[in-house]
Design brief:
alpha+beta, 5 strands
Amino acid sequence: MQTEIEKLLDDNNKDNVVFYNNNQKLEFEQIALIPMDGVSYVILHPLFGDYGDDDVIVYSVKYNDREYELLEITNEETLSKIEEIYLDMGGRDD
C-alpha cells in the first residue's frame, strides 16, 4: 500500500490523498504532478472547507525515506510557470 506522498509522486495514481494537520483531516483530489527545476510540485483540489469547484492549491514536495514536507507555493512567478507547464501537459484552463 502506498503512503500519501507515494501516491502524490506516482504519475499513475490519481486517488485522493488525505493529510492531517493538528488532527484535522484534509482530503485532496490530485490534479497534476509537475516536475520543474529539480523540484516536484503537486496541484491539489481541496475537498474540505469552503473551496470552490475550481480552486486548487500548489505545493512543493520535499521528502526522504522517513519524512516529507508539503510547502504551499504563493510566489506568483512560480505559480505562473507551473500553470504554463500544466497547460502544456494538456491540463484544463477554466
